[in-house]
Amino acid sequence: MKKIIAAFDGLNFSESNLKYALQIAELEKGHLTGVFLDDRTYTSYKIYDLVFEEGVSESKMSKLRHEDQDKRKAATNKFEQECVIHKLNFNVHHDKNYAIKELIHESIFADLLIVSRQESFTHHQEKFPSHFIKETLLSAQCPILLTPEAHHITEKIIFLYDGHPDSILALKMFVYLLPGFLNLPIEVISVKAMEDNLHLPDGFLMKEWIKKYFSKSEFVVLKGIPDLEIVAHLQREQSSCMVVLGSYHRSGFSMWLRSSMADVLAKNFDMPLFISHQSK
């Protein structure tokens, strides 16, 4: 039985992330662990909410703390109730230390991590990806399903293939972890330089492998700059697609120059992203 962990902020509970977690755990007959990141340093209120002319209000602090406790308890109850309704094997972890550190540690002992792309565990607005999401994508020790704000039933798989082993590894992990999705059609997308031919990298081997698992497959080779061409191509797709892609890691220098493909897709599309990479 696969161990699936779903990360939640109990103070800003993601219903969409819960729906994806329930769907996948039910489809794959996996054990679902709700990881509630109850970071002691993170609250729903800001310090200046407590400051008055006479100083810090202890009564106001106590009231806000209890409200946060109630929110976190309600989120946990919601998760447990839905798991019971869906007849899932499940449990709950309450991690009270630094959120990102706790989640990375949990991922070592998981087969799949499901997390909302909106998570930040901060009071202030952050551009996507938040520090929390960026660190999770870079450091998680298992594949990640990055979920959008709205839940959609998945009807098609899109695989971004650049010929690199990391991209093949991502699809292998998808196939092994989520066999319940193999009845869906898959579209394999590659982007090549303008001066290159239109042949799929290792096309014979790639098509042979794909057809072992997927009965409906389509192969598309585009020319140009990958970020631009993939975004333009996906704009013709529906939000009912799930995108599979490989390594999030980039060298320090190139990361300053351009975003990860995962960042580009999550900013532009309301689609779940299945991301897998080799641990660095």
Written account of the structure:
This protein is an alpha/beta fold. The chain has two domains: 3-147, HUPs (Rossmann fold, 3-Layer(aba) Sandwich); 156-275, HUPs (Rossmann fold). 39% of the residues lie in helices and 21% in strands. The protein has helices spanning 15-28, 58-85, 99-108, 131-139, 165-177, 203-213, 226-234, 252-257, 261-268, and strands at residues 3-8, 31-37, 51-52, 55-56, 89-95, 112-116, 144-147, 156-160, 186-192, 217-223, 241-245, 273-275. Strand 3 (51-52) and strand 4 form a beta hairpin. Helix 3 (99-108) runs parallel beside helix 4. The longest helix has 28 residues, at 58-85.
Task: Give the topology, please.
Layout: E1 3-8, H1 15-28, E2 31-37, E3 51-52, E4 55-56, H2 58-85, E5 89-95, H3 99-108, E6 112-116, H4 131-139, E7 144-147, E8 156-160, H5 165-177, E9 186-192, H6 203-213, E10 217-223, H7 226-234, E11 241-245, H8 252-257, H9 261-268, E12 273-275
Parallel strand pairs: 1-2, 1-6, 2-5, 6-7, 8-9, 8-11, 9-10, 11-12
Antiparallel strand pairs: 3-4, 7-12
Helix pairs in contact: 3-4
